[in-house]
Amino acid sequence: MAGELTGAPPAVHVTGLTVTDAGGRPLVRDLHLTVPAGGALGVVGESGSGKTTTALALLGHLNAGTRLAAGRVTVAGRPVLDAAAGADPRPLRGRVISYVPQNPGRSLNPSMRVRDLARSLLDPAGDGPATADELLESVRLPATRAFQRRYPHQLSGGQQQRLAIGMALAARPAVVVLDEPTTGLDVITAAGLLAQLRRLREERGTTLVHIGHDLAVVARLVDDVAVLKEGRLLESGPVAAVLGAPARPATRALVDAVLDPARPAAPRAKAAPATAPPLLQVNGLTAHHRSGRRERVVAAEGIDLTLAAGECLALVGESGSGKTTVLRALAGLHRPTAGAVTLEGVPLAAAARHRDPAQLRAIQLVFQNPAQALNPYQRVGDAVARPLRGPAGLPPRERARRVAALLDQVHLEPALATRLPGELSGGQQQRVALARALAAGPRVLLCDEITSALDVSVQAAVLALLDELRATTGVSLLFVTHDLGVVGRIADRVAVLERGLIVETGPTAAVLTAPRDDHTRRLLAAAPGLGDALAEAAARAEGSRA
């Protein structure tokens, strides 16, 4: 790779890596990569290109049902995978090479409190964080006693991600593999994390391998980039050159799919006239989280919102600003302490179990992580059919026809009805979750970061699908996201939250191009477009040569 230091042994060296599935189909094909000590490599590509398989191979790990067919991987000169001779990577994990997974909720021990998780990797004799407080503060998490008593499931997705990152960095490993590390983070927290990782490289000489789909984030962190397609290395080189002037059509397609928050698009679907009464109205909504026996943390306070028929309203803000709590309260999954919610002028009960069947069908929540929202042992067709069952549900034959129509509506082959969620890509799983929500015939879809884990091409397809659904069914969207590019692409209006309060609301183009509130301006400043990120990368490269 470009940037390799002459005479210095590479921190990561991959030669001829080929990984196949149980049927012998290559997932990674004859891959060659080199990362110099202290370097930073980005690995990008569409869903299914082999990015995560490559990341796991660097740790000497292969998923169940896959096998190493050929090749060798060394880290700091020591073999972690070797098709010819075998290797034992276990002594290297954590101390020489560490890993930050894409889904931290699955990697954090659910039975351990935050305090104990933070302490589990501390090395008092080393030069990393000496206490749990220091580790939490290093990734901008509160070091309060109340926070440290929480379990992982009591943290937001962004907080779980920051905790996983802090634990991976605690032992100061030589190489850190980051698999979509900013997926669950708001733009301000992500910018702070990237700055911290850059400092780690400068101060400690840590080598970074960043697996990512957010090309602007990749460009802000790495020196070089490798583009994968169907398990093959498509092109590689300095990040500003490869992403700034792609040589291959597939790379150009990835770059063209990137959304720029500075250039919001015109809404694709027409909302109801401004004079029409709101479909959903929220007045004075206040919600708390309980922490410990007595302490109550304000998650949202005095929230006022309206949503018109066919409209998309985006909720944005930092992690912990109350976005997801608002959605859960509207869905009846989190009881508010004050406020009122009406649907078509009819008050909604605070708890879902007290709402009538029509109200339950009218508001559907689509979760951030479809892999966790879908039962891994339930076939796709059964998951989509669930809202169609019950005493007043459809008979089996009609239900099967309806499932096939719903899958077709979200652009999935009806034959996928017999598959399990684990057999689908992330984008396909998210479409199944949408189909299941649509089966209920909703008036409002509550979308919680539903594009955050998708690569840019799949994200573009899902956003186009949502536009189509708005146009054909008239469904309204309340869309929580931290990606301001997505906001500019899909939302008619946007509301900005800070610490549980709405600090600004208005038409999307006005808020993104002429924000009135300082917090909104900070969010926009922390989310440069790909062009700005590539300019930063080119300047870094020029500075290193000088």
Features of the shown structure:
Rossmann fold; six-stranded mixed sheet; 546 residues; 3 domains
Residues in helices, as a percent range: 25-40%
**What's the mean pLDDT score?**
88
Choose one word for the global shape: globular
Q: How many distinct folded domains?
A: 3
Query: What is the oligomeric state here?
Result: single chain
Structural features, described:
This protein has 546 residues and is of the alpha/beta class. It folds into three domains: 1-96 and 199-258 and 529-546, Rossmann fold; 97-172; 280-368 and 442-527, Rossmann fold. It is built from 21 helices and 20 strands. The strands form four sheets. The chain has a six-stranded mixed beta sheet with strand order 6-7-8-3-9-10, with helices on both faces. Strands 16-17-18-13-19-20 form a six-stranded mixed beta sheet, sandwiched between helices. A four-stranded antiparallel beta sheet has the order 2-1-4-5, covered by helices on one side. A hairpin with a 2-residue loop joins strand 14 (338-343) and strand 15. Helix 8 packs parallel to helix 21 (530-545). It is globular. The model is unreliable at 2-6 (pLDDT under 50).
Overview in brief:
34% of the residues lie in helices and 25% in strands. It has 546 residues and is an alpha/beta fold.
Write the layout of secondary structure elements.
Layout: E1 10-21, E2 26-36, E3 40-44, H1 51-58, E4 66-75, E5 78-82, E6 97-100, H2 104-107, H3 114-119, H4 132-138, H5 145-148, H6 157-169, E7 175-179, H7 187-204, E8 207-211, H8 215-221, E9 224-229, E10 232-238, H9 239-244, H10 249-256, E11 280-291, E12 295-307, E13 312-317, H11 323-330, E14 338-343, E15 346-347, H12 357-362, E16 363-366, H13 370-373, H14 380-385, H15 396-409, H16 426-438, E17 444-448, H17 456-473, E18 476-480, H18 484-490, E19 493-498, E20 501-507, H19 508-513, H20 518-525, H21 530-545
Parallel strand pairs: 3-8, 3-9, 6-7, 7-8, 13-18, 13-19, 16-17, 17-18
Antiparallel strand pairs: 1-2, 1-4, 4-5, 9-10, 11-12, 11-14, 14-15, 19-20
Helix pairs in contact: 8-21, 15-16
